[in-house]
Amino acid sequence: MSETEDKIPQEESVESETSTDSANIENSSSEPNDELAEALCEKDQFKRLAQRAQADLVNYRRRIEDEQKLSRHRNLQRIVLKFADVIDQLDVALNSDSMQDAEASWLEGITAIQKNFVNAVSSEGFERFSCVGEEFDPRKHEALLSSPTADHERDSVITELRPGYMYNGEVVRPAQVQIAVALPDEN
Fold first, then answer.
1. Nearest to residue 42, comparing CAs of 54, 31, 34?
2. Would you state the pLDDT for residue 99?
3. Which of 25, 55, 60, 121 shows the greatest Cβ crowding within 10 Å of its Cβ?
4. Helix H or strand E segment including 54
5. Are 172 and 165 in contact (CB under 8 A)?
């Protein structure tokens, strides 16, 4: 064989080796790129998972704080309403006919105790509301009695049997009242 013929197969083999090496380089370089892309994808997934977990924790803390606030509010209402019952009993006692015969100093003491209870309830933000003459509102009033009368407007509060209490503009104990109803027809 001639030298030129010898060179051609060798060049071809060199070219084929070069192309094989470049393919191997591309394959080996694409493997790290795939691993890098996969690692970045995992990093993004973990980041999103961490953000979700952090948001869940913030929401949990907020919900717990709201529940604790609501629980404190309910406990305060429960305690204050017990005081309101004592105030009502003291009001009944002070307004009874038998109190007219009581000693003045004893009466002053009971009145002072009643005022202290009222002040303690007021200092916690609970306010008594009076409703005589108002139109009946089922959110504020609990109608225990109704009286047919021409002296008062229909569905108006005639008498307050037990005062109501509000806290931050919200009724916590409705007032028990007597309301006016229309006179029955004579027919």
1. 34
2. 77
3. 121
4. helix 3-95
5. yes
How would you label 28-56 residue by residue, b for 16+ Cβ within 10 Å and e otherwise?
Answer: eeeeeeeeeeeeeeeeeeeeeeeeeeeee
70-86 average pLDDT score: 91
Report the distance separating Cα 84 and Cα 118, nearest Å: 8
The tally of domains found in the chain comes to 1
Query: Residue 101 — φ and ψ, nearest 5°?
Result: -90, -5
Strand arrangement, sheet containing 175-181: 141-148, 175-181, 157-162
Structural domain containing residue 162:
127-187
For residues 157 and 129, the answer to whether their CB atoms sit within 8 Å is no
Backbone angles phi, psi at 186, to 5 degrees: -75, -20
**What is the DSSP pairing of strand 164-167 with strand 170-173?**
antiparallel
Q: Is residue 62 part of a domain?
A: no
Q: Is residue 53 part of a domain?
A: no
Q: How confident is the model at residue 95 (pLDDT cuts 50, 70, 90)?
A: confident
CATH number of the domain enclosing 173: 2.30.22.10
Residue 167, domain member (yes or no): yes
In a domain, 176, yes or no: yes
